[in-house]
Amino acid sequence: MFVKQLSVFMENREGRLEQATEVLKNKGVNIMSLSMADTTEYGMLRMVVSEPETAKAALREKGFSAMLTDVLAVRLEDRVGELHKLTHILCSRGLNIEYMYALAAGERRAMIVKASDGNAAAGAILEGGLALYGSGDIYG
Q1: Which residues, 6 or more positions from 10, have their beta carbon under 8 angstroms from its beta carbon?
Q2: pLDDT-derived band of residue 23, with 50, 70 and 90 as boundaries?
């Protein structure tokens, strides 16, 4: 039901993102989706990767602050209203969407969602007629 998201807190300076992606490349880790948010001094890189534990360990070994978080990968069809359906389902249950970003890897299309209550959000999404990718679907 949940997939692991790799979050990397890093300084907002030239070359730092390139260094992080090089670490993952050298370990054979595929970046399937990412979101980058920044301030003037720091950034938060959130990614869904092929081997989350390997990626976390490799980045930490190179001095990056990296952690894993459970998120939902919600399957959405490519048609008008699908994203609204997702947001409506969560909003109608009083659940807050903390952040979301798109995943498009091969045939897999999804929104990566971090909600205020992951278990309640997963239940609501399934009851609302949408589907979730599991870790086997994403990493396999």
Answers
A1: 16, 17, 20, 42, 43, 44, 45, 64, 65
A2: very high
